[in-house]
Amino acid sequence: MLRTLAIFLAGAVVGAPAGAFLWYAFSPLLFDEVVEERLTVAEVLASGAFRDADAAHRGSGTARLVALPSGGVEVQLSEFQVTNGPDLEVWLSAHPDPAASSDVTGAEWLALGQLKGNIGDQAYSVPPGTDTARFRSVVIWCEQFGVLFSPAPLSPSS
């Protein structure tokens, strides 16, 4: 009886934290977060299409770097969809076409904020004074695990 109780308690002490971690890390894969922000019509400075980073991290839609009528700059994601995951962020990257996580971390980057949802139109402000010409792609980045989820190489508008 005591042995059974000891095994049960040991399993609970080890299993509960392990289960909580696994739920935190992998539950985003089970749920989609849909957002639909109204995107401001603005001058497009550069744009590009999201693509898959690998077989497990897929993305699609369009990234646009735009100059707002108010004078600010933002990154707009339209018809956007990406594999959900924990702690996803939107970054500008100086790498022209990142194919691996090391491409992103090996180049200059600027975090614009937490991804609002893994599906739908959304916008992210670029801090005032940022030299956007230094950045050549928009990436969806998992900060927790240091993993590239989806890159969108940017091409300047003609």
TrEMBL record:
Residues 48-155 form the DM13 domain. PROSITE patterns: DM13 (PS51549). This is DM13 domain-containing protein.
